[in-house]
Amino acid sequence: MKIKFYHCSKAEKDHKASKRQYLHTKHFKGNVICYAKEFFELPFNHRMALLAHEVGHILGAKDEDQADTLAEEHFGIKIYYQDTITWGKDLEWITEKNAVKVLKILGLKF
Ligand SMILES: [Zn+2]
Ligand SMILES: [Zn+2]
Predict the structure, then answer these.
(1) Could you tell me the CA-to-CA distances from 86 to 16, 36, 52, 82, 101 in Å, in that order?
(2) Does this model's pTM top 0.90?
(3) Do 46 and 87 meet the contact criterion of CB atoms below 8 Å apart?
(4) I need a labelling partner for 91 at 20 to 30 A (CA). Which of 10, 42, 47, 98 fits?
(5) How far is ligand 1, taken at its centre, from the CA of residue 73, in Å?
(6) How remote is the CA of residue 17 from the centroid of ligand 1, in Å?
(7) How many beta carbons lie within 10 A of that of residue 8, not counting itself?
C-alpha cells in the first residue's frame, strides 16, 4: 500500500494538546496519513510502529487494538510496547529490521 504523507495544521494542534499525538488518518480521502513535524524527532523504530498502526486504521480497524493487529498482518511484523527514558512509557515499537520493512512497503523515503 502506497500512502501519502501530509503535514497538516490539525496534526500540529493535536500534538500541542496531547503530546503523544503525532499522526492521524481519515482527514483526507484516500491513503493519507497526516503528521505533526515533531514526529520526525522520534526514534526510527517508534516512528515506523506508529505509521504501521495508522495504516491499520486505514485498513478499517474498529479500535486501537485492531489497528495494531491489522498492521501486523499487513506488514508481517510484530508490534510491541517499550518504555523509554526520553520519550515516555508504553510506546509502540518494532525491531529495526521491521521498521525498514514498513518503510519499504510504504514506499516512503525518510
Ligand atoms: Zn490532517
Ligand atoms: Zn490509533
Answers:
(1) 18, 19, 22, 12, 25
(2) yes
(3) yes
(4) 10
(5) 25
(6) 15
(7) 17
